[in-house]
Amino acid sequence: MRFFLTTVCCISAIAVFSAEPMMKVTVKNLDRKGKQYTQKSWNIQFHHASMILKNTIGEEGKLASGVWGDYFFGLDHGRVNNGSWCGWNFMEVLDAAGKNLTRSAPVNNVSFIKFDGGSYADFAWEKGSVKVLQFQNMKDWIFVKTTVPSGIRQVRFTVWPGGTHWKVTGRERRVKIGSEDLELNGNVPKAVPFAGTECGMVFYNRNYNEQYGNFLVFEPDKVEKISGTGVNAMNIRFNVKTGVRELCFALGYFAKEDPGDAAQRFLTERLPNVKKALDTVNWNPVIDVSSFESAYKQVQLLVSAMESSLKQEEERKLKELRNSFDQAKSSSDAAGCARALDDLRAMRERVGKTNLKTLL
Predict the structure, then answer these.
(1) Contact assessment for residue 277 and residue 200, using Cβ atoms and an 8 Å cutoff
(2) Are 328 and 336 in contact (CB under 8 A)?
(3) Residue 231 has what pLDDT?
(4) Residue 319 — φ and ψ, nearest 5°?
(5) pLDDT reading at 74 higher than 70
(6) Which of 35, 70, 120, 296 has its Cα between 20 and 30 A from that of 257?
(7) Same domain assignment for residues 195 and 269
């Protein structure tokens, strides 16, 4: 695949049509009874889905979680009645020591990379990372990879098949895996039958919005056991075999389809193809440098037109960006290239404004 780096500017809600992949970063300063907080949000738009990461950071550099909306790691994919994959906290990763990767510390870096045929977001914490990818021609699917060098103990997903309505009388939240079909109810984790070879699951309802549900594909050879709860949302937990440091998933959905037909078609027809796609995702793309080179030439021209008193410092900054990009490129560091490109585009805007003021 040929990959392109992109800058970011706006985000829209999930839509049934193909959107332009992009990311918008917003920062707010909050004052809560004299205590200062910084709230940072990364809103990401794929071709057919969107997601958000929000961190609220206190004065000591720690994540805050005392107010609703302080923390989000949500995915809008197949959204219906505010449901489908959780729009607030769709995924959690526990390391070998049981520490929550995404919620125990602020994210270190978020990169967004667009390539020919899709895009992906790379979320990096001190102890590990999560990558989320979508191909333009696979609108029903999101691919996820988590990496924790110290080892993964458990991965959890939260899903609301059909919607988030609270305490619906008679509703059954159900999961189907292989030939097994069971209801998940209550907040005590219930074992999900897993013989070690199944690689796909279906989440659906009885007596509530039955024509909408979700699919999940995983790597069975890395999973020890599966359990889940189903008070309102369904929370699915994958206990991972000792020593596993990387784990990949594919998240899908069905809409306006009989759940029995959808499950049968998925488990017998679609699952092998999606599993093959999951196994062959290129998470380390070859980087195309055309976007950077084009922007670099533009900034060179802008800097050359600056007053001599300003030019030397800007030439130094431009050289630093060139070196950062070249180093990332030589290391096949797509995230590093994306950061250098974003910084270069910010410089282009800043230098352009400076030149305009000089003319006026």
Answers:
(1) no
(2) yes
(3) 86
(4) -65, -40
(5) yes
(6) 120
(7) yes
